Structures are given as C-alpha cells and as structure tokens.
C-alpha cells in the first residue's frame, strides 16, 4: 500500500470511528463540471480532495415527531447530530493539517456564502455536501434531492473536510441499488411545495449524471421548515409550527409572506428543549425545527413511508398553549382554540 492509499484509508477510518455510517472521497477530477457549490477551491485554494461522510438519526425519534407526539426529541437529536458531524470534520481537518496536509472543515449546516448577491440570505452553501456524497458513494440522490441510504433512508446529516492532500476517490453507488421508486411521498408531505412534481435538475459530476426534482424557491422551505407557517392548504394537517399564515402558490410570493411572518415568529414563546438550535438567519436566532418531512418520511421500506405519510397527515394540526408548549389537536379544535384568543395573541398565529 503506498502513501496515498494509506492516507485514503486512514481518513475513512477516522470518520467511521467518529460515528459516521458511510464515508467517501471526491476529488477535483470526480467533481469536474459540477455546479459552483462543488468547487473545492472556494473553501480552500489549491484543494485536491474532499472527504464526505454521513451520520444517521435513530429511527425511533423520527416517528414520535412525525406523529406530532414529541417535538423536542428530534430537535435535540438534530442539534446533536449536526454538532457531531461538524466535530468530526474539525477533528479530521486538524489531524490532516498537523500531518502537513492543509485542510479545512466544512460545517454540517447553517453556513452560507456571503460574497454573492443577497449575501448569506441567498443560502448558497460554501460547499454542497450532497453532491459530494452522491458522487463519492455515500448515498444516492432521492427524487427529493436529499441523500438517501440503504440502511437509514434520508435520515442522515452530512459533513465534509476539504484538503490539499491527494486521496483516492471512491465511486458512486450503483444506480440500480437506489431504492427511490419516485413514490412522491416526500413531495406530498411538503406543505411548502419546494420540490417540482414535473421538472428535474440534472447535474454532471466528473462525467457521471445525477438527477432529482427541481427545487423551486428556497424561501418556500425557509417559510415552512423554518416554522414561520405550517398549516397545509387543506387545513387538515400541519407541521409542528402553530402558525397558520397563508401558503402562497407562486415562488415570488414566499419572501414577502416570510418577512411579514418574521415578527410574530420572534414574539412566539420558544420551548426550551435543553439542546436548542441556533440559526444565524432566524429572527431572534432560535430555530424550532418543525418539519423535515421530506427527509424523515423517506425510509427504504415503502410500507414504512406510507405509514409515515399517514402519521403526518392524520395527526391533526398544532396549536401553542400560553406556556409555549405546542400540541396537536383535531383541525376543528384548533379553529375553536384560536377563537378563544385575544386579537393580539391570535395575530401571532394567523
Ligand atoms: S419519498 Fe419516495 S420519491 Fe421521495 S426520495 Fe424517498 S423514495 Fe424517492
Ligand atoms: S423540510 Fe419541509 S418544507 Fe422544507 S422541503 Fe422538506 S418537507 Fe418541504
């Protein structure tokens, strides 16, 4: 085994030993021709390779969240898995740099390019972990555009390290092993309509083509997953957000409604889960994770996906009590509850 082979094995062992369930290596060659968010030199000039890895959620915590029985468990898990992914990236990057191989960690989430029109609010990441993950065989692209894995579905968080080290790239997983059967349940469980039902995005990475449903304006997901609103247009089910501001149809209408909903968002009491999520773009900084449906519905077993769809759509709508705690009730009970509130309090929700 030569030096490059040895180091390539070491970085993989390093990530797996830290808790990753899968790891891959992408290089400037295997990412050639990709979108700007696959440009390793944006993160580190003269970068040669990137190590990308996935950490998995415990499946148990997902279903109590989707059934709207427990919001806190998944919020805590989300915070901690992101922290672990970013921590592995930092450790591995420092290890390589100490060995004379200059490297930088890429935080798992909530870091954005500031030198683009719109700055951080453009939400363009320095590097897209998911492109690297698909190209290096960590997982497949699902129709949702999320990375899906045979053992944990889409319930994973990704992290990366960019390095000047020459490493041996790993190959994509065989396309025929991708369990995504285009069931569309990710789209049906999305209140915001982020994922196009008719159009796909195609990318080429190092000569290999990948595709997933085209994403409409990211303001859609910001508005719903960010917790500014969460009631499905049918009025029959919601995310964990107690806010029921309107869900527009057109992309360009999302940013104005989001800005309008920012003040009520800030004023609503946030629950203390003990391991809270802070997000630099969220009004008041505290992010309550209220959705993630497209990710957490996507289990490798289609029957489980169908059951989870029923959990999401059959568990009613969320209201918030005066102490800040949220709970799911029947749609009619939510309407009756809101009618009991004084005008000022009610304006926090609709
Ligand atoms: S929910 Fe269905 S369509 Fe969406 S990514 Fe998963 S398997 Fe594919
Ligand atoms: S996180 Fe929620 S709002 Fe965002 S795309 Fe997924 S399902 Fe839609």
Provide a compact summary of the structure.
By secondary structure, the protein is α+β, with helices and mostly antiparallel strands.
User: How many strands?
Assistant: 12
Poorly predicted sequence stretches spanning 5 or more consecutive residues: none
User: What pattern of helices and strands is seen along the backbone?
Assistant: HEHEHHEHEEEHEEHHEEHHEEHH
The first-to-last residue Cα distance is 64 Å
Structural class: alpha+beta
List the total number of helices: 12
- Give the proportion of residues in helices: 25-40%
Unique bound compounds? iron/sulfur cluster
Question: How many strands, what sense, and barrel or not for the largest sheet?
Answer: 4 strands, antiparallel
Strand order of the largest sheet: 1-2-6-3
**Average pLDDT score:** 96
What sort of overall outline do the alpha carbons produce when their principal axes are compared? Answer: elongated
Question: How many domains would you count in the coordinates?
Answer: 1
β-strand percent reads 15-25%
Question: Could you tell me the radius of gyration in angstroms?
Answer: 21 Å
Can you tell me about this structure?
With 350 residues, this protein is α+β, with helices and mostly antiparallel strands. It has one domain (3-170, 177-346). Helices cover 33% and strands 17% of the residues. The strands form 5 sheets. The chain has a 4-stranded antiparallel beta sheet, with helices on both faces. A hairpin with a 7-residue loop joins strand 9 (277-278) and strand 10. The longest helix is centred in the first third of the chain and has 27 residues, at 72-98. The radius of gyration is 21 Å and the shape is elongated. 43% of the residues are buried. The mean pLDDT is 96. The chain binds iron/sulfur cluster (2 copies). Residues 142-144, 148, 180-186, 297-298, 305 line the site of one iron/sulfur cluster.
